[in-house]
């Protein structure tokens, strides 16, 4: 779990309990009905079947969208799961009258951009540490160990 996002351990567990049976089900490949405002309203009230329907309908296309942005299937799948955790945690705040699909993809795009910025920052830090001048009081062995660790990271 990333440290800059709020974590919801109880909610993540609830989402996992709702979604896990669906992932292993062969029904996940079948076409689902479109997400309607009544379905979103039911999900906002805490209806698990409505959330499952939204999840089944949205997880594939959302993951594909994130995969295009991030160019990493595993990161796309992780962020897609975080999005549904976020949706379940904030379901009372969602306006069912507005375009839910637009909301879903806006959240996805925002999280993907945060992930890309984080990766860019991590790369800058890695490059800095890789090319950093060793301390003057470091022994030659310490310098070699530091460089080897930097290459492993």
Task: From the structure above, extract its key features.
153 residues, mainly alpha, 6 helices, 71% helix, 0% strand, elongated
In words, what does this structure look like?
This protein has 153 residues and is mainly α. The chain contains 6 helices and no strands. It has helices at 9-23, 37-44, 48-70, 73-89, 100-131, 140-152. Helix 2 (37-44) packs across helix 3.
Strand/helix succession: HHHHHH
Unreliable runs, pLDDT <50, ≥5 residues? 1-8, 22-32
Number of helices: 6
* Helix percent band: over 70%
Q: Looking at the structure, what is the overall shape? A: elongated
Question: Could you tell me the strand content as a percent range?
Answer: under 5%
How would you characterize the largest beta sheet? none
Instruction: Quote the distance from N terminus to C terminus.
Output: 19 Å
Let me know the average pLDDT.
79
* Rg computed from alpha carbons, rounded to a whole number of angstroms: 21 Å
Computed structural class = mainly alpha
**What is the number of strand segments?**
0
Q: How do the strands and helices of this protein lay out in sequence?
A:
Layout (H helix, E strand, L loop, with lengths): L8 H15 L13 H8 L3 H23 L2 H17 L10 H32 L8 H13 L1
Helix pairs in contact: 2-3, 3-4, 3-5, 4-5
In brief, what are we looking at here?
71% of the residues lie in helices and 0% in strands. It has 153 residues and is an all-alpha fold. The N terminus is likely disordered.
